[in-house]
Amino acid sequence: MEKISLPKGTRDFGPEQMAKRQFIIDSIKKVFQRYGFQPLETPAMENLSTLTGKYGDEGDQLLFKILNSGDFLKEANKQNLETGNWKLATGDIAEKGLRYDLTVPFARYVVMNRHEIAFPFKRYQIQPVWRADRPQKGRYREFYQCDADVVGTDSLVCEAEIILMIKDAFKALGVGDYSIKINHRAVLSGLAEILGARENENSLFVAIDKLDKIGEEKVKEELIARGFNTDSLATLFEVLNFKGSVAQKMEMLTKTFANSEKGKKGVNDLSEVFSLLENYGSAFDHVEFDIALARGLSYYTGCIFEVKINNVGIGSVSGGGRYDNLTAVFDAKEKSSGVGISFGIDRIYDAMEELKIFPKETSAASTILITHLDNDGFKYGLKTVQAFRERGIASEIYPDQVKIKKQMEYADRKKIPFVVVIGPEEVQTKNLTLKKMETGNQLKLSFEEIATAIQLHNNKD
RNA sequence: GUGAAUGUAGUUCAGUUGGUUAGAACGCCAGAUUGUGAUUCUGGAGGUCGCGGGUUCGAGCCCCGUCUUUCACCCCA
Length: 461
Description:
alpha+beta, Rossmann fold, five-stranded mixed sheet, RNA-binding
């Protein structure tokens, strides 16, 4: 028999992990809702034509494709199969694929429902996505994204609010040491322009994005290999290595971009975002203007964001930006601008686990376990457990009549904080024995006394 | 997709130049304790050494393939 296992890069989440994951999801969801975003869900699978061509050639290879049902080979073009032209052959035998991110399905939804939607449309979406990548630490083939996007406005208020939401989210999660990096695609394009590298933009962006990872020398090597000369590299690193406050960076770039319209646009946008943040009354802590931040996804056109939790061996936990023409790929007439942020909850989980900063009480176990010593106690317990539930206290009764030791062990293992013991004495006096597992202390109390005390205890948290 | 490492009990790991019956700790189960968990004591169960082939008188150890996990590149949450 085949050994049971999971597909590469996928995981089960047991109760303990789920408690922590839900803590992260709930925290982020609350922030999204507080900023006026509304929920959306889209199907796990999309038509392959919706997905292909949106993420570049690399992205197309990372799409999971779903084999057509039935005798799919009959319909396929034999020539494509036999000549080994797998790209064409794939189109013949697979018409559906698993979603690769939440942004493209969102754009599809917006275009399909444009007449129903009130713009600007603010939606959040928390669902798994799939990538046929090779798994590594912090990198899975199935993982969750928590996205919030606004479509249908160019206002930089959205960008500023993204920064506010990131701060709120990490505050709710209890993550204190993190950096929000911000840059603008037009700043990068402006750089390319003054370096005379407009044709070579992408290799420039890819190389400088690695600056903090591989260092200045390696980036220079890579750029020289791609045909950049030493003069332009000198200019480039003069800009990249500039140290100073945000205001000083802006001033420097304004001079640098004296002859670059694109560069000026980028600097103006960023200045406005920063001044909006001031108007919101938000401090600039955690926010870094990083001229070297590029980000891969080619559809970004305006501000770009990336969030890293410091001192953990995990890549970015969140990223986003503005894309001016995402909906245009579905309909050329449709040119709504969008801007959004995506939190990777699997990576946030890994980082928080590494830092050991999950709150202790994330477990969703019962508050009370009813234990019983005999059949009368068990019956009395059934009434009692239901009464606790009516008072809003999560409780359960041990379902089998077994030794009290066994029932206590169960409470201990499930980390249920309180145990009620019901035996002949309790049934007769109508006073229940309440045991606090943490200390081992126990008292005889009435149902009312216990229920009130537990409710107080729960409200304290 | 390219290049490399890894896999032994539920878990973390030992296991000598290839040599009889593969070990430890923790965990698990039972009892000490028929109205009490976590602590203590006693006993017990648990392994096709990832899987498949090969070399050898003999393989956990060597060789090939395959899968898993991990690392670098690519890319990314």
